[in-house]
Amino acid sequence: MAVEDIGAQRVGNGNPGIGKQQADAGRCLECHGADGNSIDAKTPNHAGQYAAYLAKQLSDFQSGARKHEIMTIMAEDLSAADKADIGAYFASRKIMQGEGGDVNQSGRNLFANGDRSRDIPACSGCHGENGKGGIAGDVVYPVIGGQRKVYLRSQLVSWNLGERKNSPGGVMNTIAKSLSDEEIEALADYVSGL
Ligand code: HEC
Ligand code: HEC
């Protein structure tokens, strides 16, 4: 697939210009950053994230399928057009990038190969070799490569405990269920560096 097609797929049908204004007026940029790189470790980056993934999460906060005290309030009044436009704005920013550095080898191994003996599939199979995500039919695999480490760890813990359960068919709960704390730490360390 050509690079421009992937770019268009990321942005979707929303209007990035209107989305920027909405994100500013809605105070999203105060936490998620004007360029989609967040201001603190617990807050996810949105830079280069798939607009359709961001819109789905906002709908899930609205319906209660995903729970978070602040985001439930922030998402409350957004219309379908707002969600698409704000998503398009963040998706069109320069994609989040990790700082590289020392590679966590056990994290890399799990990411690239999974662990067949425990039915853990390779993360790269869905999230892509560099963790930059993809779309297959109706399912969006979010960008995780270069995401904040503390945020990645918190989401993996949350899938593991079954507190977050909004992935299609519960796929992330199934995958994260048998990860140990050490493995979650190693994965968060490796993936955030991509
Ligand atoms: C006060 C800080 C704050 C503000 C303001 C804020 N957010 Fe968030 N946002 C967060 C935090 C923290 C999370 C992580 C939630 C979690 O841990 O589950 C988050 C998560 C999200 C997610 C899920 C991302 C993912 O990778 O799954 C989306 C989408 C999002 N915010 C969009 C928005 C939008 C749109 C606005 C403005 C209408 C907004 N946020 C305003 C702090 C904020
Ligand atoms: C079979 C496909 C599949 C595999 C394999 C997979 N994931 Fe996912 N993952 C998903 C989907 C789909 C979502 C989006 C869930 C949603 O819509 O809320 C997701 C979401 C996530 C998120 C949340 C991102 C965010 O911004 O909040 C993290 C973190 C994550 N996956 C990490 C991993 C890790 C680490 C592995 C390997 C151990 C892995 N995934 C393997 C399909 C997969």
TrEMBL record:
Instruction: Name the predominant localization.
Output: periplasm
Subcellular location(s): the record lists: Periplasm
Q: Which InterPro entries match?
A: Cyt_c-like_dom, Cyt_c-like_dom_sf, Cyt_C_IC, Cytochrome_c4-like, Cytochrome_c_Oxidase_Subunit
Say if the entry is tagged with keyword Chaperone: no
Q: Which residues form the Cytochrome c domain?
A: 14-94, 102-194
**Entry-linked Pfam families:** Cytochrom_C
**UniProtKB keywords:** Electron transport, Heme, Iron, Metal-binding, Periplasm, Transport
| PANTHER family in alphabetical order | CBB3-TYPE CYTOCHROME C OXIDASE SUBUNIT FIXP, CYTOCHROME C4
Please report the name of this protein according to its UniProt entry: Cytochrome c4
Q: Which organism is it from?
A: Candidatus Methylobacter oryzae
